[in-house]
Write a structure and sequence with these properties.
The chain is mainly alpha-helical. It is built from 6 helices and 2 strands. Helix 2 runs parallel beside helix 6 (113-136) and helix 4 (82-93) crosses helix 5. The two termini are 31 Å apart.
Length: 151
C-alpha cells in the first residue's frame, strides 16, 4: 500500500519533500556559524537562504554551496542582503568554489523522482548525523567510514 501511494506522488511533491529535509540540514549545519550575510547568531527562526534564487536558478536549488543559514531580516526583509551574502559566501566556501558556483549556475538540472528520493534519503542521513553529533558533543559523535560527515 505504501509503495502504491508513493507512485502517485508527483515530481513537484517530491521536490517539496526534498526542499524540507535539505533546508533542515542547512539550518543544522549552519546554526553555530551565524548569518551568512550579517554574521549575527542564528537563534529562533532563521532561513536556509539561497544566494542564487530558486526562481532564477533552479539548478542550484539543492546545491549546498548556494544555500546557507540566514537570519529572517537579511533573507526576507533585505531580499537576501546579497552584497553581504556574497562576501560571506566567499569567506565561507572560498573564491575558487564561489567561481565554480557561478559557472554551475548555467548548467541544467533535470531531477527525476528516483533522484529526488535518493537525495531525500541522503539528507535525512545527514540530518541524523548532525543531530547525533550535537546531542553527544563533537568528541563523542560517531564517525562514518571515512571519519567525516556523510556526503
Amino acid at each position: 500500500m505504501k509503495e502504491r501511494k508513493q507512485r502517485l506522488i508527483t515530481l513537484a511533491e517530491w521536490k517539496r519533500k526534498l526542499q524540507t529535509v535539505f533546508n533542515k540540514y542547512i539550518r543544522l549545519r549552519d546554526e553555530r556559524k551565524g548569518c551568512i550575510s550579517c554574521g549575527k547568531p542564528l537563534r529562533g527562526k532563521y532561513d536556509a537562504g539561497h544566494f542564487y534564487s530558486v526562481g532564477s536558478t533552479p539548478n542550484l536549488r539543492f546545491d549546498e554551496r548556494n544555500v546557507h543559514g540566514q537570519c529572517v531580516p537579511c533573507n526576507q526583509y533585505k531580499h537576501g542582503n546579497l552584497i553581504a551574502y556574497r562576501e560571506g559566501l566567499i569567506q565561507r566556501i572560498g573564491l575558487e568554489s564561489f567561481e565554480q558556483l557561478e559557472v554551475d549556475k548555467t548548467k541544467e538540472l533535470r531531477l527525476t523522482i528516483p533522484q529526488a528520493q535518493d537525495l531525500i534519503a541522503h539528507y535525512k542521513n545527514k540530518v541524523e548525523y548532525v543531530q547525533r553529533e550535537a546531542n553527544r558533543g563533537d568528541s563523542k559523535a560517531p564517525k562514518t567510514k571515512k571519519g567525516t560527515l556523510p556526503k
